[in-house]
Design a protein that fits this description.
The chain has about 170 residues and is α/β, with parallel strands linked by helices. The protein contains 6 helices and 6 strands. The chain has a single domain, classed as Phosphoglycerate mutase-like (Rossmann fold). The chain starts with a strand and ends with a helix.
Length: about 170
């Protein structure tokens, strides 16, 4: 069994038009939503063996917050340039290359590539992974090279608004 968790970075700030896209930080909502999602994933018992993240500032901050909440050592997060602005095909290739020793992997990146990958690998159609949203896909195999060539079972699709709506009911 292999599990892949695709995480879209939390909401970023557009306050400074002089900043490059790569350097945009989280805005106040992003700074609230990332810890909320980390706590939620922790409650669900999700503990990744490996976290890979885009090195873009907003993705990096999201990755560090999630790692802290999930008890994953920050220094073990792997920053992968190819995740920034990646197509679904690039991300799929990344999944094929995942180390066999990592059974549960979290990839933190950007849309539209993440949503497209979730639709390629999962068994439900997702129109859009919202900011700080997480899609989990499980594969009935022990080999990532097999997993990236098969349809898995979508086991999780959570995002901050959905969690907040449940807690206010």
């Amino acid at each position: 069994m292999r599990e892949l968790f695709l995480v879209r970075h939390a909401k970023s700030s557009w306050d400074d038009p002089m900043l490059s896209d790569f350097d945009r930080p989280l805005n106040s909502r992003g700074k609230e939503d990332a810890p909320l999602m980390g706590e939620h994933l922790k409650k669900l018992g999700i503990k990744p063996d490996l976290i890979l993240s885009s090195p873009a500032k907003r993705a990096k901050k999201t990755a560090k917050i999630l790692a802290a909440k999930l008890g994953y050592p920050e220094e073990k997060i792997e920053w992968r340039e190819q995740i920034y602005e990646a197509s679904a095909q690039t991300l799929l290739y990344l999944v094929c290359q995942l180390p066999q020793g990592a059974k549960r992997v979290m990839v933190i990146g950007h849309n539209p590539g993440l949503t497209m990958l979730a639709n390629i690998l999962g068994d439900i159609t997702i129109e859009n992974i919202p900011t700080a949203g997480v899609v989990g896909v499980a594969f009935d195999t022990s080999d990532w090279q097999e997993a990236c060539r098969m349809q898995g079972h979508t086991i999780l699709f959570e995002y901050p608004k959905k969690i907040k709506e449940r807690t206010t009911k």
